[in-house]
Amino acid sequence: MNWATFFAFLKGNLHKTHFVKGLLSAVGITILVSGCSTSTLPSATTRASLTTNVDDYQYLIGPGDNLTIFVWRNPEISGNFIVRPDGKVTTSLVEDVEVSGRTPTMLARQLEEQLSTYINNPRVTVSVSRFNGPFSEQVRVIGEATNPRAVNYTENMTLLDIMIEVGGLTQYASGNGAKLVRVVNNKQVTYDIDIEDLVKDGDITKNVDMLPGDIIIIPEAWF
Length: 223
Fold this sequence. Notes:
The protein is α+β, with helices and mostly antiparallel strands. It folds into two domains: 3-55 and 135-218, Outer membrane lipoprotein wza domain like (Outer membrane lipoprotein wza fold like, Roll), CATH 3.10.560.10; 66-129, wza like domain (wza like fold, 2-Layer Sandwich), CATH 3.30.1950. Helices cover 22% and strands 22% of the residues. The protein has helices at residues 3-11, 18-34, 104-115, 159-165, 195-199, and strands spanning 38-40, 66-71, 79-82, 88-89, 97-98, 124-129, 139-143, 150-151, 178-184, 187-193, 215-218. It is elongated and about 70 Å long. It starts with a helix and ends in a 5-residue tail after the last strand.
């Protein structure tokens, strides 16, 4: 039986049982991720063995962030600024400053350069509150999580932290059939992750480090 015949059979019998519905959903997600080869991640307790150094993470400013920009000896141009949806802010001297995707230190040096046109030897510091970060830095959880959504990445975040944020698994989730999709060296790599063993059985060896931009796909169980 080919895939077309198989799906036609399942669709024709969707009214009979929830089991068939779950089977169709699980097979669909399996096909979605099966196009990529899968790899194994080290557990979060073996951070030193990671090929990608999560310890080098630096927060990047994103839309919705609240910035405090302080220009030494120039309080009239210092203040609080909310990053617009287009990733920019407007100060009293410099309009439409592109800030999204920059670290606070990078932005401070950028502003010093721009303000030097108006101020002699400016000194700028930038701090951030109400963190959101760029969308590219968020961790997305889709499928059978209690509250699937995008989660703002924070330093040293793990899979367990993410599952707490999304409220764990639904009763229909195939937690040990979940996949983590990550871009490594400009290539998309898919990893197998055992969420059910982690959150339901407390197997901490299944905890893994997360990186900005990760996508977690949790399929529905077949039965």
